[in-house]
Design brief:
The protein has about 180 residues and is an alpha+beta fold. It has one domain. Helix content is about 55%, strand content about 15%. It contains six helices and five strands. The strands form two sheets. Strands 4-3-5 form a three-stranded antiparallel β-sheet. A two-stranded antiparallel ribbon has the order 1-2. A hairpin with an 8-residue loop joins strand 3 and strand 4. The longest helix is centred in the middle third of the chain and has 20 residues. The protein starts with a helix and ends with a strand.
Length: about 180
């Protein structure tokens, strides 16, 4: 009987670790480790060879941070700033259209839905950009968009989920690292 109880406890522990929740001690221990790593990696600033891409990335991070903070109204001007930066790059017309949808959205859910589409446009650009220093982290939340998942870019390893904000702030994982060459 004790053997079955241990198997049940192990299964429960594994399930708890896999969930995007802050309800158990193991998750907190992992979070603390990630925070230490993030602190050491955040020291190196991101620098792009192309100033236009630097401006786009800076504006993108402002928008992402507003979505993380669940700030509907301050995400709107951040989206407009990103649209302005994107207009400087030929071929980013669809991304400009998406940022306009974010700026005009009536609720945070609509902004976050459009943010998924924006990332589909922008992540490939940053995967092929020339960084002179720093690392961009492509992060993924498997629960975003009704379980379809959603990706975003970050300058640090620490997960700050723009799809759920404080509801599930640390839900996600680092899917890829884009490093300076």
């Amino acid at each position: 009987m004790k053997h079955k109880n241990y198997i049940g406890l192990i299964a429960l522990a594994v399930t708890s670790l896999m969930a995007c929740s802050n309800n158990n001690q193991s998750s907190t221990e992992l979070k603390d480790t990630a925070a230490v790593v993030a602190d050491t990696t955040a020291v190196t600033p991101l620098v792009f060879q192309d100033e236009k891409l630097q401006n786009i990335y800076t504006a993108y991070i402002k928008l992402k941070d507003q979505l993380v903070a669940t700030k509907l109204e301050t995400a709107k001007p951040a989206a407009k700033e990103l649209a302005t930066a994107l207009k400087e790059i030929k071929g980013c017309e669809n991304a400009v259209h998406i940022t306009t949808k974010i700026a005009d959205a009536k609720d945070i859910k609509a902004q976050r839905t459009a943010f998924t589409d924006l990332n589909v446009e922008l992540i490939p650009i940053f995967k092929h950009t020339a960084l002179t220093s720093g690392t961009i982290y492509v992060q993924h939340c498997p629960m975003a968009n009704n379980g379809d998942g959603g990706d975003w870019l970050s300058s640090e390893k620490r997960i700050q989920n723009p799809y759920y904000g404080d509801e599930m702030l640390e839900c996600g994982r680092v899917a890829e690292e884009i490093k300076a060459k």
